[in-house]
Amino acid sequence: MTVAEKTIKMKIDSPAMAATSEETRNRALKKVKEALIENKEIIFKANAEDLKAAEEEGVGQAVKKRLKFDENKLAAVTEGIEQLIGLKDPIGRTLLKRELDEGLVLTRISVPIGVIGVIFEARPDALVQISSLCIKSGNCAVLKGGRETARTNKVLFDIIHEAAKEAHLPENCLFQVEAHSQIDELLSCDKSVDLLIPRGSNAFVRYIMNNTKIPVMGHADGVCHVYIDKSADIDKAIKIIVDAKTQYTAACNAAETLLVHEGIAEEFLKKAAVKLSDAGVKLRGNSRVSQIIECEKMEDDEYKTEYLDLVLSVKIVADENEAITHINTFGSHHTDAIVTEDDEAAEIFMQMVDSAGVYRNCSTRFADGFRYGFGAEVGISTSKLHARGPVGLDGLVTYKYRLCGNGHIVGDYASGAKQFNFKDIDA
Amino acid sequence: MTVAEKTIKMKIDSPAMAATSEETRNRALKKVKEALIENKEIIFKANAEDLKAAEEEGVGQAVKKRLKFDENKLAAVTEGIEQLIGLKDPIGRTLLKRELDEGLVLTRISVPIGVIGVIFEARPDALVQISSLCIKSGNCAVLKGGRETARTNKVLFDIIHEAAKEAHLPENCLFQVEAHSQIDELLSCDKSVDLLIPRGSNAFVRYIMNNTKIPVMGHADGVCHVYIDKSADIDKAIKIIVDAKTQYTAACNAAETLLVHEGIAEEFLKKAAVKLSDAGVKLRGNSRVSQIIECEKMEDDEYKTEYLDLVLSVKIVADENEAITHINTFGSHHTDAIVTEDDEAAEIFMQMVDSAGVYRNCSTRFADGFRYGFGAEVGISTSKLHARGPVGLDGLVTYKYRLCGNGHIVGDYASGAKQFNFKDIDA
Fold first, then answer.
1. Maximum C-alpha span of chain B
2. Do residues A37 and A205 make contact, with C-beta atoms less than 8 angstroms apart?
3. Alpha-carbon distance A181 to A177, whole Å?
4. Which residues have C-beta within 8 Å of that of residue B360, sequence separation ≥ 6?
5. How far does chain B reach from its first CA to its final CA, in angstroms?
6. Average of per-residue pLDDT across A50-63
7. Cα A395 from Cα A356, distance rounded (Å)
8. What is the DSSP code (8-state) at residue A199?
9. From CA B197, how far away is CA B176, in angstroms rounded?
10. Which residue from A70, A226, B101, B204 puts its CA 20 to 30 A from B324's CA?
11. What is the DSSP letter of A188?
């Protein structure tokens, strides 16, 4: 069956998936958890083969760590499923209840989005998390994981799909796309897929965004800034920029640019350069920066660069307004922080910076669904529509309006025979 | 200045617009209202010229009614502005407040979307409503109205823009695109325009959706259904389908297809055909329908047709499931109604039909922001992301996350030195 044919079947099954009870969906999650534990040796075996192939291709230590699925990862994903089971049902919630007139009652009810396609990096735990989130939220999911863990993914997917069917979820609630070449086919399924969530490199996400009519949720760039205000506590500022730059350089929420108020630049930059250099960070700056610290020269138009590496752009700004304008112009509207002890400066920054996350006196690395207490995340969105920032269960639902009457017609209201009489009812 | 240059300026001004106080925005609305009343003769004069030109082009009576801006329309829009002033501020609301750990507090705050482009039909009152909604919600707005009311629009826009500036809203909060040829330029401004709301013909909206990278909110088709269940009250059913089809045929929420359960088809169709025919409706149906009533023959693949006229497709279905599948396949996910006295049938229909509005025993024509009690609407969305159904102020806002710490870094949590300790705080 082609991807197009399969997603049409999923679209047809999606109202039945949306209609499953909370109990059924939680039972399915419990079965998924148990099946993963029961079949762990098969999973580990497939993962060993993936790891061996990766080794032969000569992948680095950091990548191998992500590819690996062992007892620890199993424990983490099963604990995640247990947490998900405990979360409040995201669907079937009454978001508004209003009598429009006698006997004519409007309700707004949260419902699943329908069919969601998720394209994610080579991390077997991601496959478990994403399918669990979709089951919990009553969505049908098309999954495409990274090539390097194809064997592990296949085993994991079969176990999860089998458990879901045993719990009486619709047959077509889950589907795995295995070949990279099928991604383009998936992108053309705008009649049957309601939402795409691509995760991965900037170029890959941008490719997805530019080649589909399906709404896309996610982010391409993560050009995050830390701005050191003239009223910053220098020790705090150094701790924060070192963490934001070095704690995990490959993450989208890692800092790429350090902005410094000219009133504190000399003192701060001299101290910070030592600490950043100790942490292995290579600094780049324009000519003004290079007058204070040793750094690689860069041009002003390079401030849009996302390094995802131990490299940091540095710029001195005349005041907070220049910092805000720089961030809104050169940034990616992801997560940006100010370090300051001045409440007013903090308030202006957080108001005027147009990003999904605006932080004060903490590291940009906190931008993450788990750290926000969402239990899990499907990704981070830099779009302003639907969900913004880290996206948990809330981002996987929409709503529908129900209107119940007793023969009510608009003609009576247009003619003036009847009048609306809005009365909100506690939901 | 080109549209691209202007929208870049609006994007730069948008954080300042977002930062305006509720008081300032309400004061601006009050000034807009007063200025419209003060300058009404100038507006009426421009409108008379538009009407004269339309007359010369030979437009119909219904269109002229829409183009006209008189004392009644002025009273309606100024009353609308007064209502908007009274509505709760949609921005600056705390949607979530959570302590992640001691001294590290996350808040989710509603904020304007930024720069919104609205392309709307030739109705001067729409220009006033849309600009008022954008002012209330702190958004910058690019407005493009229909050509036939260009003179009225220009006068209205200048009055509104002047009043907004007098109230100290940013200079670039409003901008009017006057030439139809500039629409394509606007579509290319995906770096500076955050959202497009096109209203108008199916072909026009589809053109917009297919020719921009800017997120689009709205609907192309409105293929709405009324399904008459076997347990329907026939009198109610006839009243509802006549209203849904004829009360305003040009509206997107008018019914285009009548589905009838075979168990009630003979009795219902014979009675309904008389009433629909009395109301001037031409019926079309497949061969099964034509065995019961006189109608124009149609093929099954024509059931996707949006007539926007006194024409109605009719189909007999074997049961409720066939009705649901028909609606989910041939419909446009806008608004669909069941007429039934059977609670269980109603519940299944409303659960399984995948549309923005699912109705029981009332006309599809109720799908409208005013009738839902939203005070005003910018349009109706058939997308499942962001806003669905009639869109009022709620659909013009997004949110941002604020995180305030005191030197908090992720390294401490990754190493286990600190643990998250989530505590929701009443907002």
1. 80
2. no
3. 9
4. A402, A403, A404, A405, B337, B338, B339, B340, B346, B349, B350
5. 44
6. 89
7. 14
8. -
9. 14
10. B204
11. T
Reported ipTM:
0.92
CA–CA gap between residue B105 and residue B114 (Å, rounded):
25
CA distance A311 to A205: 22
How many residue pairs from chains A and B have C-beta atoms closer than 8 A?
Answer: 233
Cα–Cα distance, A82 to A332 (Å, whole number): 35
CB-based contact, B310 to chain A, within 8 Å: no
Report in angstroms the alpha-carbon separations of B213 from B113, B192, B208: 16, 11, 10
Residues of A in contact with B304 (CB under 8 A): none
pTM score of the predicted model: 0.92
Q: Do B356 and A401 form a contact (C-beta atoms < 8 A)? A: yes
- CA dist A61 and A183 (Å) reads 28
Q: Do strands A104-112 and A94-101 pair parallel, antiparallel, or not at all (unpaired)?
A: antiparallel
As a whole number of Å, the CA-based R_g of chain B is 25
Question: Does B427 have pLDDT greater than 80?
Answer: no
- Put simply, the chain B residues between 345 and 404 with a CB less than 8 A from any chain A CB are 346, 350-363, 365-367, 371-373, 383-386, 388-390, 398-404
Q: Do residues A363 and B409 make contact, with C-beta atoms less than 8 angstroms apart? A: yes
Give dist(CA A421, CA A413) in Å, integer.
11
Nearest residue in chain A measured CA to CA from B91: A351
Partner-chain residue, chosen from B14, B19, B386, that has the shortest CB–CB distance to A385: B386
Three-state DSSP at B172 gives helix
